[in-house]
Amino acid sequence: MSASELIEQFKTLPAKERAQVAKFVVENDDSWIPESFKQGMADAKAGQLVDLDTALNEPYPGDK
Asked: Is residue 25 predicted with pLDDT exceeding 70?
């Protein structure tokens, strides 16, 4: 089945079923999420965060 055919069938579904399909896609396909966001989330999970006040008010260590 082509994407065009799938989209046409999707359009004919009742709203509740379209919501189920949309939920399935969001939960099972992250190709729409930018890699930079995924990296940021991985950094946050690893505890690699900087306090916003520090980031805005202290010089970057490499900038001497």
From this structure: yes
